[in-house]
From TrEMBL:
InterPro entries (UniProt xref): Poly_Biosynth_Transport, Polysacc_synth
PANTHER family: INNER MEMBRANE PROTEIN YGHQ (PTHR30250:SF31), PST FAMILY PREDICTED COLANIC ACID TRANSPORTER (PTHR30250)
Keyword Protein biosynthesis belongs to the record: no
Keywords: Cell membrane, Membrane, Transmembrane, Transmembrane helix
Membrane topology value: Multi-pass membrane protein
Parts of the chain that traverse the membrane: 20-38, 91-116, 128-153, 165-182, 308-329, 349-373, 380-401, 407-429
Protein name, per record: Membrane protein
Subcellular location: Cell membrane
GO CC aspect terms: plasma membrane
UniProt lineage: Bacteria, Pseudomonadati, Pseudomonadota, Gammaproteobacteria, Lysobacterales
Entry superkingdom: Bacteria
Organism of derivation: Luteibacter yeojuensis
Length: 445
């Protein structure tokens, strides 16, 4: 491990993950304060409406948005390494144009569907106009270009600062709304302004860093004309978009399938276990966000990025074992204290899912390694196959073994995704001498 930390790239991954982790912890605590104020100040019905309005806008943006931050890292990082500022401008321009187009489409679509879906998701006619106004946030929620720019420039410290702005403003506004008895209008205005301020700060940071790097006119939106100068642009953004959609649908659909097969009570228990699973897996998700930009700076034709992936996987896997043991030790009293004794059954399935936690954390570098090898389609196929087999296993094992069968299926799904991703990753490593560092399909300058 001492030798590993002598590697500057490995140190950068851990450092950046620490930045993001510290920001997430602070943001989570401030978020709890905001929710506590809203929950105490309003009736359960109004509090639920506030949550539904925010969730509706976020769901629409998640469904439509492209993973443009990955595009900026994939194509822009090598351009910065070569000081090819013209190419980086093209990358940022295309990414911004895609964010702008998808954001407007998502906003218009979300507003148009609200009269049809509002009642189904729990938005009453008297709250319709509040929800419609909140949908104007969708374009800023969809945009990921500034995040990609800051990651490509290695300013994770600014991302960490920005991640704390929205929950900080939301907590302050919620305290004011609570003691000022401002009711539902006060809280939804706080949610809106804090989100807008947080997203605006991210854009401001990105613009400032571009100026410091002497990169001008990078945020002039472009699409088709710019894309013709970036070979593989459309293939990458559509592939990563489909992959993210599969991931989102699988996660969102798990509880739905458990509820269909075993009933709503079982779905509630499984949701509790999934909540703990997602929280415990946060270190791996933070490492992935810092790993991808760092490994993209390295030449994939050498062994260095692949060794970095192996070391990162070992570190994350070791953390996964420690976190899994911690979950097993404190999970039962924590579930009972937070959710109540009626949900203690979640602890039994959480023990099975703890093994899945180790697998998912150790396997986090695989997707990024496939991306730097321009094998994003292989990553998509791996996720799609794993998702299909997982759904079949979930339905079959839940029928046969109840909720414990659903937990076993979840563990199997994590193993399948890691295994299906590992096969093309090993193949890409063996053929690394045929890869190009600068950009897919292009020779290095």
């Amino acid at each position: 491990m001492k030798h590993w930390f002598s590697d500057g790239a490995f140190r950068a991954i851990v450092r950046n993950a620490t930045y993001l982790g510290s920001s997430n912890v602070i943001g989570a605590l401030l978020g709890l304060l905001a929710l506590a104020c809203a929950g105490r100040a309003m009736t359960p019905e109004l509090f639920g409406t506030l949550v539904v309005v925010q969730a509706y806008a976020k769901s629409v943006s998640d469904f439509v948005k492209f993973q443009t931050w990955q595009f900026v890292v994939q194509f822009g990082t090598p351009a910065l390494a070569h000081r090819d500022l013209g190419r980086f401008r093209d990358v940022a321009s295309f990414s911004f144009g895609l964010d702008l187009a998808s954001g407007v489409i998502a906003m218009v679509g979300g507003m148009a569907l609200l009269p049809l879906l509002g009642h189904a998701v729990g938005i009453t006619p008297q709250d319709f106009w509040w929800a419609l106004g909140y949908c104007t946030l969708i374009p800023t929620m969809t945009a990921a270009t500034p995040t990609g720019i800051l990651r490509a420039i290695d300013r994770f410290d600014l991302i960490a600062v920005q991640q704390g702005i929205t929950p900080f403003l939301r907590a302050i506004g919620s305290v004011i709304a609570y003691y000022g008895h401002l009711g539902f209008p006060g809280f939804i205005a706080t949610w809106y302004v804090s989100s807008l301020a947080g997203d605006g700060t991210l854009w401001w940071f990105a613009v400032r860093e571009l100026r410091r790097q002497d990169i001008h006119h990078a945020l002039r939106p472009g699409l088709f004309g710019v894309a013709r100068r970036i070979k593989g642009a459309w293939d990458f953004v559509w592939t990563t978009n489909f992959a993210h959609s599969i991931w989102s649908a699988r996660n969102a659909g798990t509880n739905v399938l458990v509820g269909i097969v075993l009933g709503p009570a079982a779905a509630g228990v499984f949701k509790v276990a999934l909540t703990f699973f997602d929280a415990a897996g946060t270190p791996a998700s933070l490492m992935q966000k810092s790993f991808y930009p760092e490994v993209r700076r390295l030449d994939p034709t050498t062994t260095r990025p692949w060794k970095l992936g192996l070391r990162s996987a070992a570190l994350a896997g070791g953390l996964g074992i420690l976190v899994a043991l911690l979950v097993i030790l404190v999970g039962k009293p924590l579930i009972g204290g937070v959710f109540g004794k009626q949900y203690l059954e979640a602890y039994d399935i959480l023990q099975v899912m703890s093994a899945a936690l180790v697998v998912s954390m150790a396997g986090f570098p695989l997707e990024s390694l496939l991306y730097i090898a321009s094998r994003q389609r292989a990553a998509l196929v791996a996720q799609a196959l794993a998702a299909v087999v997982y759904v079949v296993l979930l339905v079959a094992l839940a029928h046969a073994m109840g909720i414990m069968g659903a937990a076993i299926a979840y563990f199997a799904g994590q193993c399948l995704e890691a295994g299906f991703s590992l096969i093309p990753t090993v193949a890409a490593y063996r053929r690394r001498h045929t890869l190009s560092y600068y950009s897919p399909g292009e020779a290095r300058p």
